[in-house]
């Protein structure tokens, strides 16, 4: 059975997702107790794509994170490097444009997307900062970046409950319903090793994005970071976006 280590070797990560692909969405719904649906809605709102926009959904897996755009008639490209995840996605949603590609070396031209988004993917990428640079390269000037990722609960008591869930309950539940329970041990470990909200915001900003801000969801279990590629007209700046990193704000 495949599970990646915290080294996140691309071949191991891809093989692990190939393994979990058939039951990926079901297990997600169970383990998040249905929260993923709400989180996904908020991501789509943050992307704010309009008809005519071209959106890149990176590390799109089975395309669940890409579906809302396709449903709204927006041109979405679902890119991932796990062929197993892409196959499940293509079977389920033949209307979505699934593309095999590595986040650290994207098969797209410079300045070709109006928005770039990645949900629960960046943490799995071997070189996440290189992926942030690649996303910047393929985004048009002024394009929006939206990242949803597990993060750090903000209240100590909530953090304790959540860590207990992550390290004990989650692998136990996954062992009953997943085809690859050990991958959920990786999930728990990789979440704990991931930078907190401000740490990720610093990476995004350091890699050249501007107006970086984030919003905590479910008490900080998930954070949605957003930013813009410099060079736009400014019209696309989200309301309330922080102008400098030290101005970062959070909302519940
Ligand atoms: C947890 S899934 C998220 C799928 C989808 N975005 C969602 O919200 O359900 C993470 C995905 O990241 C993909 N991934 C990890 N590293 C990648 C890389 N370097 N390039 C492309 N995809 C990658 C995996 O193959 C997997 O499908």
Task: Output the keywords.
SAM-dependent_MTases_sf, S-adenosyl-L-methionine, 9 helices, alpha/beta, 7 strands, 19% strand, 252 residues, globular
Please specify the SSE layout and strand pairing.
Elements: H1 10-20, H2 24-31, H3 35-47, E1 54-58, H4 67-71, E2 75-80, H5 83-92, E3 97-100, E4 113-119, H6 128-138, E5 139-150, H7 156-177, H8 182-192, H9 197-206, E6 210-217, E7 222-228
Parallel strand pairs: 1-2, 1-4, 2-3, 4-5
Antiparallel strand pairs: 5-7, 6-7
Helix pairs in contact: 7-8
The chain binds S-adenosylmethionine.
Structure description:
It is a single chain. This protein has 252 residues and is an alpha/beta fold. It has one domain (10-242): Vaccinia Virus protein VP39 (Rossmann fold, 3-Layer(aba) Sandwich). The chain contains 9 helices and 7 strands; from the N terminus they run αααβαβαββαβαααββ. The protein has helices at residues 10-20, 24-31, 35-47, 67-71, 83-92, 128-138, 156-177, 182-192, 197-206; strands at residues 54-58, 75-80, 97-100, 113-119, 139-150, 210-217, 222-228. A 7-stranded mixed sheet has the order 3-2-1-4-5-7-6, sandwiched between helices. Helix 7 runs antiparallel to helix 8 (182-192). The radius of gyration is 17 Å and the shape is globular. The termini are far apart. Residues 236-252 have low confidence and may be disordered. Bound molecules: S-adenosylmethionine (SAM). S-adenosylmethionine is lined by residues 10, 13-14, 17, 59-61, 64-65, 80-82, 85, 102-104, 119-121, 124-126. S-adenosylmethionine binds next to helix 1.
């Amino acid at each position: 059975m495949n599970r990646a280590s915290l080294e996140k070797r691309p071949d191991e990560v891809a093989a692990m997702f190939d393994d979990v692909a058939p039951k990926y969405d079901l297990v997600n719904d169970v383990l998040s107790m249905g929260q993923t649906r709400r989180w996904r809605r908020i991501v789509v709102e943050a992307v704010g794509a309009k008809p005519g926009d071209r959106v890149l959904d990176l590390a799109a897996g089975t395309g669940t994170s890409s579906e809302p755009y396709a449903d709204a008639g927006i041109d979405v490209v679902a890119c991932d490097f796990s062929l197993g995840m892409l196959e499940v996605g293509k079977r389920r949603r033949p209307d979505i444009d699934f593309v095999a590609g590595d986040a650290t070396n994207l098969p797209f031209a410079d300045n070709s997307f109006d928005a770039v988004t990645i949900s629960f993917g960046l943490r799995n990428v071997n070189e996440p900062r290189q992926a942030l640079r690649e996303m910047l390269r393929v985004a048009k000037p002024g394009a929006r970046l939206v990242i949803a990722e597990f993060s750090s609960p903000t209240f100590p008591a909530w953090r304790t409950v959540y860590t207990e869930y992550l390290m004990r309950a989650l692998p136990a539940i996954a062992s009953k319903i997943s085809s690859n329970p050990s991958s959920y041990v990786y999930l728990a470990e990789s979440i704990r090793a991931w930078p907190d909200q401000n740490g990720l915001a610093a990476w995004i900003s350091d890699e050249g994005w501007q107006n970086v801000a984030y919003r905590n969801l479910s008490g900080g279990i998930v954070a949605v970071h957003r930013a813009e590629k410099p060079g736009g007209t400014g019209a696309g700046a989200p309301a309330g976006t922080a102008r400098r990193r030290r101005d970062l704000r959070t909302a519940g």
